[in-house]
Design a protein that fits this description.
- This protein is globular.
- By secondary structure, the protein is mainly β.
- The chain has one domain.
- A hairpin with a 6-residue loop joins strand 1 and strand 2.
- Helix content is 0%, strand content 58%.
- Bound molecules: zinc ion.
Length: 71
């Protein structure tokens, strides 16, 4: 595979439960960052490694049955 490898990952705000989707991009160099909930400003995810997250979007479940996640 040449170039960037992008994957989508999903996170839930630990405080208000709002779901987010972010694009994870592999990097040759180490990156780090954090993302805070856009509603309650609690930290949703932080990362450090040979990848970066960007393009954070709210991932609202369309039906209540899909609202339950592993955690
Ligand atoms: Zn929140």
């Amino acid at each position: 595979m040449a170039g960037s490898i992008w994957t989508t990952e999903f996170f839930d705000c630990p405080n208000c439960g709002l779901g987010y989707a972010a694009t994870k991009e592999q990097h040759p160099a180490k990156r780090s960052g954090t993302f805070n909930c856009q509603v309650c400003e609690v930290k949703v995810h932080d990362w450090s490694g040979n990848y970066d997250f960007f393009d954070w979007k709210i991932d609202q479940p369309k039906a209540p049955v899909f609202g339950k996640r592993w955690a």
